[in-house]
Write a structure and sequence with these properties.
The protein is α/β, with parallel strands linked by helices and 190 residues long. It contains four helices and eleven strands; from the N terminus they run H-H-E-H-E-E-E-E-E-E-E-H-E-E-E. A seven-stranded mixed sheet has the order 3-2-1-6-9-10-11, sandwiched between helices. Strands 4-5 form a two-stranded antiparallel ribbon. Keywords: ATP-binding, Ligase, Magnesium, Metal-binding, Nucleotide-binding.
Length: 190
């Protein structure tokens, strides 16, 4: 399917989810992440969910990361430059929703993308090759292309993969894994 078709399909699928379902599915996804081969890493980038888009509640995953004393990074997006700046999440980090409803740090200790070991990637859809569909602004593809080559890219999804995304671009960065409530998909792209 084409990316635009997948965006429409999965926005509709998400819209049908009730709050309780989102919480249950998100908790299961977080628990499934415990089986990933990532826990020897130090710097983890985590997205904070856009509640209006019914994104996966990453609070459960945040608690796991904090409980394992990982360095947790969250981002602030600049919609003019389409770049993301990454900040260390600390007890004193103030978070506010931007104009698009994205929770972001107000300020903090900036960390370069080159330090990040693992990135939990938001998505609407993905395929069996590890290609993903986001909201179409290109923020994450640009961010992922700035990271070190061995950064581990982990998608989080309520749903199983599509067979194939037909309009993949050369600039699209593939996932290494995608974690769902039903298990983990691993993509052999390296």
């Amino acid at each position: 399917m084409l990316k635009n078709e997948l965006r429409l399909k999965y926005k509709k699928e998400r819209k049908a989810l009730r709050f309780e379902e989102i919480q249950d599915l998100s908790l299961t996804i977080a628990n499934n992440c415990l089986s990933l081969p990532i826990w020897d890493k130090r710097y983890f980038h985590l997205f904070l969910p856009i509640e209006a888009q019914k994104e996966i509640n990453t609070e459960f995953l945040l608690q796991i990361l904090a409980g394992r004393d990982k360095e947790i990074l969250i981002s602030k997006s600049d919609f003019e430059t389409r770049k993301m700046t990454h900040f260390l999440l600390t007890d004193s980090t103030r978070i506010m929703n931007n104009d698009y409803g994205i929770p972001e740090p107000v300020d903090g200790i900036e960390v370069p993308a080159s330090k990040i070991d693992v990135i939990f990637v938001p998505l609407l859809a993905y395929d069996k090759s590890g290609h993903r569909v986001g909201y179409g602004k290109g923020f994450y593809d640009a961010f992922l292309s700035q990271c070190k080559t061995d950064v581990i890219k982990v998608g989080l999804s309520y749903f199983d993969p599509e067979d194939a995304i037909t309009d993949v671009l050369d600039t699209d960065v593939q996932l290494d894994f995608c974690v769902t409530p039903y298990g983990i998909f691993e993509f052999n792209i390296k």
